[in-house]
Amino acid sequence: MKSADDLVDEEQGFLSHLVELRERMVKIVVVVAIIFGCLFAFRNDIYIAFAAPLADQLGPDANIQTIDPAGSFFVPLKLVLMLSVFIAIPFLLYQVWAFVAPGLYRHEKRLVFPLLVSSTGLFYLGVAFAHFVVFPIVFAFFVGVAPEGVQVNTDINRYLDFAITLFFAFGIAFEVPVATVILVMTGITTPEQLVKARPYVFVGAFIVGMFLTPPDFISQTLLAIPMWLLFEVGIMFSRTLKVRVTEAGEARDARDGVVSDDASADDSVENSVENSVDDSPDGDNTTTASKETNNRPPLDRKPDTKTGGYSNSLTDAPDDAEDSGP
Q1: 3-class SS at 14?
Q2: Most exposed residue of 114, 217, 223, 269, measured as fewest CB within 10 angstroms of its CB?
């Protein structure tokens, strides 16, 4: 049973983590509030730039309108708040990393940090692709197919909801290379298996686009094709990763081979001692004890692995000393 001092130490450690988590959350809120305060005065200009892909397609005779009396104030306010969080994402992820990193080993940091940075950059890239490439095409199609005599006047709140939905859809879809690399690094699949699943991924991309985008085939297609191309990019990176992991596995096998030779030498010594003990007067009892000892598996012997076998050397590496900081 744990003593009272051990319980107190555990409780104090847990409370210290809660205090640190609160401090980092306060920092995140303060940074978002500062960004929001800087952008608030430009909320109307920000919304005009945000709605430019649609306004350019409506023409001079049509306008983006609001049917809510308070919409002209709250919709730009909501957009600025979302933009503040969007800009603060790198700082937010840094605070999460700084909170988690002291408990990670060095090889775990090498695994997590690059994925964290690349996933953030790909999310930004997906949002930019949606705003500058997808929106002009989609809105030009919607305005062009409107029946004769129908004037397209979109509500600002509905446009905001539509745009945010597409932003998140494309931001998440652009994380496909990261997901592919994670699957390979964890040993769940291999690049060869991903290549065989290529037709299913192509069809699945259109199914995912059907659920993540509004009910039109233009935005669905514009989401599915980049997802498939990013899947191919993920396969390329996975093959490069496989070579690195294989080389690390061969180095590990070479290191384990030295240990196996030492273990074989120890077995030879034990057998020699056992044979010499057989000639002693009370050799029966001694021989039995020696056999029992010899049947025990050596503590330092590692399981045999295929030389150069494809395994995750990053996560299978022996745990090294914990680092004190991110």
Answers
A1: helix
A2: 269
